[in-house]
Write a structure and sequence with these properties.
By secondary structure, the protein is of the alpha/beta class. 38% of the residues lie in helices and 21% in strands. The protein is built from 13 helices and 16 strands. The strands form three sheets. The protein has a seven-stranded mixed sheet, sandwiched between helices. Helix 1 links the parallel strand 1 and strand 2. The longest helix is centred in the N-terminal third of the chain and has 20 residues. It is globular. The two termini are 39 Å apart. It binds aspartic acid.
């Protein structure tokens, strides 16, 4: 049995709804459907969710918002009309308007996009609708209660062989509507997949899966056919985004693979994400490359630092006191380097350095700015000799200097730091060396 989640662009207009229906009809195992709210129909268009946030904002400032609500309603009516569904949504929109006037929350406002789209899709497919507020449970701080949700959902869906469950929202223990962060329908889909113990969680979107590198840098970057959840996590952390970060956990735990598919190219098998790749030998030593700009290295030097117990802890304490997360800690004998996000450091730069000086009395503290980190990820690296050497040669042969190196002991990921100006060049060089062979 398959759980299929459709993103906003897959349901942006009536034509997309028709494609979705065809996809569902193509495989009778596709029993549980999780839709997002209608997304952009093209560049410059608005997402329904953004318009709903705008309504809430206006309402909260005591400004008029009916004209925005009308635009939203018009989009649903247009879809319904073209699908020959006779529905003018007036009752639903009166209810939303009144709720907003009475001070309904921002999360309630945003959730209505998925709620209405779910009802519309359920009607179009002639499949029962289940309000996500009944099956996705949050605590009062707005955090998902995953185990309770799993139980609730499993119990309810056991009695329903097919259902449409809207994504993105649920309700907390007081009954108030709560949402995930943006893109959170991916998480809802993963929760449904876990609750019904699906064979596959299909996530239908507008791209044909993950690419080995950002196509803005490597325009012809190949698609990744198979990737493990761990590899994906490493790549996503470094900026490769197709799936919401939290969508991985429920399905990974349950051993359910996730298949990224393209609604506009349904024959393409997309990217399959599994817990382990089993016997499958990756086509290349590396699975993918991802990276981000906006980091800096704070290096702290002190003679005989290695003999000083608690030195590292005290350095990190200085960052912690200012709520700055550290990303990496490439460390030498008498130097400790802390890689952090530049914008986080800049807010408290002088104060943090002062605190480091107080806590560890270093010989020198320097900050190297404008750093980009690049992660080269691949389960194939363990079994191949010389991957790091090839990687460094690829980068240095472009005249690019590597500022920092970090390889996890899992041999799944090698991270290098280069100057931001060299970022694109380094990514291309790595891609060319490992993929264009
Ligand atoms: N509609 C929500 C958003 O735009 C959630 C989602 O699409 O997954 O973020």
């Amino acid at each position: 049995m398959i759980v299929t989640k459709f993103g906003g662009s897959s349901l942006a207009d009536a034509d997309q709804f028709k494609k979705v229906k065809e996809i569902i009809q193509m495989d009778s195992d596709r029993k549980y459907i999780v839709p997002s709210a209608p997304g952009k129909r093209g560049p410059g268009d608005d997402k329904i969710t953004d318009l709903l946030y705008a309504c809430h904002q206006a309402a909260a400032n005591g400004k008029a918002f009916r004209h925005i609500l009308e635009r939203i309603r018009a989009r649903y009516i247009e879809i319904a009309d073209e699908l020959n569904i006779n529905w003018d949504f007036s009752e639903e929109f009166t209810e939303i308007e009144q709720a907003l006037k009475a001070g309904a929350s921002r999360e309630y406002a945003a959730s209505r996009g998925e709620y209405l789209n779910g009802r519309l899709l359920a009607r179009y497919l002639d499949i029962p609708f289940v309000d996500a507020a009944r099956v996705v449970l949050f605590n009062e701080d707005g955090r998902l209660m995953e185990e309770e949700t799993n139980q609730l959902m499993a119990d309810l869906l056991r009695g329903l062989p097919r259902a449409v469950i809207p994504g993105f929202y649920g309700a907390d223990t007081t009954g108030a509507i709560r949402t995930f962060s943006r893109g959170g329908s991916d998480v809802s889909g993963a929760l449904v997949a876990r609750a019904v113990n699906a064979d596959v969680y299909e996530n239908w979107t507008d791209v044909t899966g993950f690419r080995m590198a950002d196509p803005r840098i490597v325009p012809d970057a190949q698609f990744i056919a198979n990737i493990t959840y761990r590899e994906l996590r490493e790549l996503s952390y470094m900026g490769a985004t197709v799936l919401h970060e939290d969508a991985v956990f429920p399905v990974r735990k349950a051993g359910i693979p996730t298949n990224i598919r393209n609604t506009n190219d349904p024959k393409h098998p997309g990217t399959m994400i599994r817990a382990s790749a089993g016997q499958d030998d990756p086509a290349h030593v590396i699975t993918g490359i991802a990276g981000r700009k906006g980091f800096c290295i704070v290096s702290i030097e002190k003679d005989m630092m290695n003999a000083e117990l608690g030195f590292g802890r005290r350095v990190l304490q200085a960052f912690e006191e200012f709520h700055i997360n550290f990303e990496h800690l490439p460390t030498g004998i008498d130097t400790m380097c802390v890689v952090v996000h530049e914008n986080e450091l800049n807010t408290h730069r002088e104060a943090v350095i002062r605190r480091i000086c107080e806590l560890v009395d270093p010989d020198q503290v320097t900050v190297h700015e404008h750093l980009a980190l690049i992660a080269t990820v691949g389960r194939g690296m363990v079994r191949n000799f010389g991957t790091a050497a090839r990687l460094f040669t690829a980068i240095s042969s472009q005249g690019i200097s590597i500022r920092t190196i970090d390889q996890g002991s899992s041999e799944l990921n090698i991270i290098v730091g280069v100057d931001e100006d060299d970022f694109e060049g380094a990514v291309k060089a790595i891609y060319d060396t490992f993929v264009r062979i």
